Amino acid sequence: MAVTRETLLADFLALGISPGMSVIVHSSMKSMGWVEGGPEAVIEALIDAVGPEGTILMPTFNPPVDRFYIAETPSRTGLLTETFRKRNDVLRSAHPTHSVAAWGKRAAEFIAGHERATALGVGSPMHLCAEAGGYVLQIGVDFRTCSLIHVAEAIARVPYLEPVFYPGYDRPMTVVYPDGRERVVPPRENPGDSSGFLVVQEECERRGVIRHGKVGEAQAMLTRGEDILQATLDLLKRDVTILLCDRPTCRVCPRAREVCRNARRGTAPASGGD
C-alpha cells in the first residue's frame, strides 16, 4: 500500500492526534518506508492532523559552532527536521546547539526566550509545550530520542547537570538572528547521554500512558508530555543515577556517576572538561 499524505493523516488520527493538539515530534524518516511526496508530505499530514489551532515542534539540534545562524545552520536530527526547519511558516528558537523549530498557533510562545533558558531545561520550548498539555510523537524511534527526559533531569536538579561532558559544548557560542543581531549564549546545563532512557519507556508502558500505532510502515508512539515528565521524576526520586547507562565505554555516564558519588560524599563535582 502506498504511503501518502492522506494515508499518513489517517495514521496520525488513528494514533490519537487531534485538532488543536501541541505535538513534539521525534522521527526516523526512513522508518516510514517510501512516502509519496517525501518529508513534505509527512509535515503536511501532521499539519492536517493538528489543524490551525495546533502546534508542531521538532528538534533541530546541531554540533557546537562558533556562530549559530538561526536561519541557516542546518539541523542534524534527521531529514524530516531539516525539511521542517526550511519552511517559510516555521519559526526556530535561538539556542546555539539545541534549537527547536515550531509551526502553529503557539509556535512563537513555545520558542520565546530559549537563548535565556538552557538547552533542554526549565523554560525551554519542549518544557513549555509539555506544561501546556502537549504530547510527544515518536515515529520509528524509541525513548532514547525523547528530549523531554532531559527536561526532567533539569527539574530534578540531578547532580550531574552542570558538568559539560561533551567536548566543544563547554564554551560560549554566538547566536546570529535573521536580522543580523547577535547574542552570546554561555554553556549551562548541557544535556548528557540518553542511551539509558529506555527505563522511562518501560515505566510509561507499566503505567499504560503510551498509545501505540503505525505511521506508514513505522511503529509509532504518542505520549502526553506531562506523563513522561512525571514518570521520569518518580524514577529519579528512587535513584538519581537511574537514567545513566551501564556501558563502560560511554564517555558521559561513568563520569556522571562519579559526580553523584561526590555529591553524596559532599565533595566538589568532577570537572567535565577533556
Please provide a written account of the structure:
Helix content is 32%, strand content 17%. With 274 residues, the protein is α/β, with parallel strands linked by helices. It has one domain (5-265). The protein has a seven-stranded mixed sheet with strand order 4-5-2-1-6-10-9, with helices on both faces. A three-stranded mixed sheet has the order 3-7-8, with no helix packed on it. Strand 1 (22-27), helix 2 (38-50) and strand 2 (55-59) form a beta-alpha-beta unit. Mean pLDDT is 95; it is low at 269-274.
How helix-rich are the residues, as a percent range? 25-40%
Tell me the strand order in the biggest sheet: 4-5-2-1-6-10-9
Q: Note the beta-strand portion.
A: 15-25%
Number of domains: 1
Which geometry do the CA atoms define? globular
* Rg over alpha carbons: 18 Å
- Regions with little confidence, pLDDT below 50 for 5+ residues: 269-274
The average pLDDT score comes to 95
Beta-strand segment tally: 10
Q: How many H/I helices?
A: 9
Q: What is the quaternary state of this protein?
A: single chain
Largest sheet: 7 strands, mixed
Question: Which sequence of SSEs, written as H and E, runs from N to C?
Answer: HEHEEHEEHHEHEEHEEHH
What structural class do you assign from the helix and strand content?
Answer: alpha/beta
Distance between the termini: 51 Å
